[in-house]
């Protein structure tokens, strides 16, 4: 075989690590270090086209090159290694860890969805929230609007049996 055919065969499937990341539309590209070679910008496979899950520098990838031509290659990521180890050994959990330490986890065995935010992190829901179950908080719950339990308004309710002096009033009136 000649040198060109040998090079193309060698380049069909290669292992490497992400060197640079270039987020752009219509698709993201990366450069990959494969031994002493650094590829040109090549496409990066996101597992579905409807999600945005960029790779990390140093993430291990497999590079598939049609016809052995690295300029046409696509990088497939998500391989675990010593730098990016598997985040769990529990097959019942789906876990996403973000670069700031935020963890989203769903445990299908225990039916438990968790969001663990880093120090100073906040969660924002836009729209109405319906909770079919109890709520427990370890800190105060605040509202800029009225709080209504049943049909009793926290801001506008009146109490019955109000008497002067140090006696307690009766319950709230809707």
Keywords:
174 residues, mainly beta, 32% strand
Element layout with pairings:
Elements: H1 3-11, E1 13-22, E2 29-34, E3 37-38, E4 42-45, E5 60-64, E6 74-79, E7 93-97, E8 103-107, E9 112-116, E10 148-149, E11 152-153, E12 158-159, E13 172-173
Give the low-confidence spans.
Answer: none
Gross geometry? rod-shaped
Class computed from helices, strands and strand pairing: mainly beta
Average pLDDT level: 89
Helix-strand topology string: HEEEEEEEEEEEEE
Q: In order across it, which strands form the biggest sheet?
A: 1-2-4-6-5
| Number of DSSP E strands | 13
Strand content: 25-35%
Task: State the separation between the terminal residues, measured CA to CA.
Answer: 90 Å
Main beta sheet: 5 strands, mixed, barrel
From the alpha-carbon coordinates, what is the Rg to the nearest angstrom? 28 Å
**Which range best describes the helical content: under 10%, 10-25%, 25-40%, 40-55%, 55-70% or over 70%?**
under 10%
Quickly count the helices.
Answer: 1
């Amino acid at each position: 075989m000649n040198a060109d055919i040998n090079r193309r065969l060698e380049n069909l499937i290669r292992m490497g690590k992400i060197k640079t990341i270039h987020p752009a539309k219509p698709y993201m590209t990366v450069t990959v270090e494969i031994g002493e070679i650094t590829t040109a910008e090549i496409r990066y496979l996101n597992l579905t086209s409807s999600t945005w899950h960029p790779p990390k520098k140093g993430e291990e990838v497999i590079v598939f090159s049609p016809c052995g031509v690295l300029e046409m290659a696509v990088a497939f990521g998500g391989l675990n290694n010593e730098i990016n180890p598997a985040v769990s050994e529990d097959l019942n959990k789906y876990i996403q860890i973000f670069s700031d330490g935020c963890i989203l986890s769903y445990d299908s065995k225990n039916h438990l969805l968790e969001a663990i935010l880093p120090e100073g992190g906040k969660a924002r829901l836009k729209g109405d929230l319906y909770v079919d179950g109890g709520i427990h908080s370890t800190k105060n719950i605040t509202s800029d609007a009225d709080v209504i339990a049943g049909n009793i308004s926290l801001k506008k309710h009146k109490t019955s049996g109000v008497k002067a002096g140090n006696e307690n009033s009766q319950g709230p009136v809707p």
